[in-house]
Design goal:
By secondary structure, this protein is mainly beta. It has 2 domains: 34 residues, no CATH class; 107 residues, Immunoglobulin-like (Sandwich). It contains 1 helix and 9 strands; from the N terminus they run H-E-E-E-E-E-E-E-E-E. The strands form 2 sheets. It has a 5-stranded mixed β-sheet, with no helix packed on it. It is elongated, with a radius of gyration of 22 Å. The termini are far apart.
């Protein structure tokens, strides 16, 4: 019968990692040169809006951390579908908005469409990022 034993090096390495990471290996983002912010998912409702010139379009953006016990901050930026700034007639006044996530964050965004905006279909996206990850959420804005 074969006995399983952990060698002294394996035991020492395990204890070192547990001590350095507060005993939570799966939630230790800065130990061993790893990333500093957890990954996350982004959900947008609606993904299509029709709005008249001079009015606002309302969107709800949810940012959900893959590791809810680790809070982090980030920014959400409005871009066109190629990653460029949106047309100057469409936006919310700032190029990017900061946010903070503790498990989940809900951002209610009001996008203003200037009276001078050209009618048509605009393919846009929200870029949501923390220090380590960026998620892109495409949507369509139809201006009447």
């Amino acid at each position: 019968m074969r006995r399983w034993r952990l060698g002294p090096k394996v035991v020492a390495l395990t204890l070192f990692l547990l001590a350095g990471c507060g005993g939570q290996l799966n939630l230790c983002w800065t130990c061993g040169g790893g990333t500093t912010d957890p990954s996350f998912q982004v959900y947008l409702e609606p993904t299509y809006q029709r709005v008249k010139r001079g009015e606002s379009a309302l969107f709800t953006l949810r940012v959900v951390s893959d590791y809810p016990s680790i809070p982090f901050g980030g920014v959400v930026c409005l871009r066109d579908d190629r990653g460029n700034p949106p047309p100057p007639e469409i936006g919310w006044g700032e190029s990017c908005l900061p946010f903070r996530v503790e498990g989940e964050a809900r951002l209610d965004l009001a996008m203003e469409v200037a009276p001078s905006a050209s009618p048509g279909v605009y393919r846009l996206r929200f870029e949501v990022s923390n220090d380590d990850f960026t998620r892109y959420v495409p949507f369509t804005l139809e201006v009447e």
